[in-house]
Amino acid sequence: MIRLSGRMRSALIIGGQGIRARKLRTALSMVSIFLGVLAVVVVQAGAEIVRQAALADLELQLGKDGTVQMYFPPTEKGAAAVLETLRGRGDALAQMSTSAIIGEPNTQPVNPGGAPFNDSAQGPAWATEGGGAVSMACDDQGFCRPIDVGPDTGAPRGAAIQLELRVLTGDVRRFIPYQVEAGRWLDFTGSPSMSPRIVVNREAAEGLARHRVPAELHVEGTTANPTPQIVGVVDDGNGQPTAYVWSEDLFNWLPGPAEQAEWVRGSMQVMLAPTAGEVERVLRARLVSAGVADNSVQTHVINVRKNIAEQLKLLRLVFLGLAALVLLIGVAGILNVGLATVGERVEEFALRRAVGTPRTLLAGIVLAETLLTGLFTAALAIGLSAAALRIGVTLLHRPEPFLQNIVFPWQAAVAGVVAGLVAGLLGGLIPAVRAARIPIATVMRA
């Protein structure tokens, strides 16, 4: 329990009584510093919300902090060793990517090359030297990019969509925070299914809702086209149609282990938890024994927070500087009010000096009033900012889903309290010194 000294307690009590006795002057002081404190709170809250939004976006693209990514040259034996080592593990996984088509076989998909369905226009295809074709896809803002639509087979366009298929040996959500929006996520603990269970992202779900296609999954290298089960929809931050499938479900349709290793070797990515050091050493040893050079096995640790902090530091300092300028203007206002109040209370302070009140206590009384005023102003600014944020989240969380889990940052509340106390200290320091220097003889003249 915090115990205040006698003088400090007396200064707070008398300062509180002075605030109640001069409500109008207190209100004027609060108004003078309110905008400055509010600016500090808004800047700090805005910077923290932007940091959280940027962190969430980068984590969807790169992974959570501490995730270890392993890279190595693609070889058939190396891929087989990785699959065998990581099978059934929860602290490490391998992710493979390939192109897949859902819908009518032997037809051209409605989005060649796995183009997003939100592209407002898709231009004609141009032939390339290798016999393939490249198309231009343009979005609503007019930005266009080339899309490789693969070899021109002359097949007619049918009821089929093309997407990126990510094959997982384990639950990737431990490393990348995908949010399930409908249905459920993949189950990596049960028995493999002959009907591969897949989870699609938003873009793929929109394409499936817009185009009615048969339930037939075509993946290059499989012995037949299985019938997929779409079990959920996930937000992965990817604008390209993407689906996720458990490797064991898909490997049922590959001829054998050798074909599996050959199929995945060119597109494998390994992710490990920070605590999976032993797994990393085993993987490295098995890759080396499979013929991969030890110096070609590289690892990289994700550090998203550090990168974001460096990017936002300068922007935050600039806006905090502007907020501090507004706060200083408010300090000038509370300083004028404080000097006027001390001028009206000269006889009171002189009388207190005459009955033995120390100079430090007189200065403490004036400082207590301005500090309490700054603290009350900070509480008002923080409450208003928190209420405005809550209203904004309620109104905007549908078009901006990342706002759904946003709460008022405690850093902004701390910054507001500090700004209010600093404003009270700066605005009350000179009046406090003047009050402490009032001579006892002033009572004689009164």
TrEMBL record:
As for subcellular location, the record says:
Cell membrane
Q: Which Pfam families match?
A: FtsX (PF02687)
The leader peptide range reads none
The UniProt keyword set, sorted, is: Cell membrane, Membrane, Transmembrane, Transmembrane helix
Q: Which InterPro entries does the record match to this protein?
A: ABC3_permease_C, Macrolide_Exporter_MacB
Q: Which ranges does the record mark as transmembrane?
A: 27-47, 314-340, 361-388, 408-430
Residues in domain ABC3 transporter permease C-terminal?
322-439
Q: How does it sit in the membrane?
A: Multi-pass membrane protein
Among the GO molecular function terms of this UniProt record, one is: transmembrane transporter activity
Task: Please give the superkingdom of this protein's source.
Answer: Bacteria
Cellular component terms (Gene Ontology): plasma membrane
- Indicate the family of this protein: Belongs to the ABC-4 integral membrane protein family.
Protein name, entry field: ABC3 transporter permease C-terminal domain-containing protein
> In which organism is this protein found?
Virgisporangium aliadipatigenens
The organism's lineage is: Bacteria, Bacillati, Actinomycetota, Actinomycetes, Micromonosporales
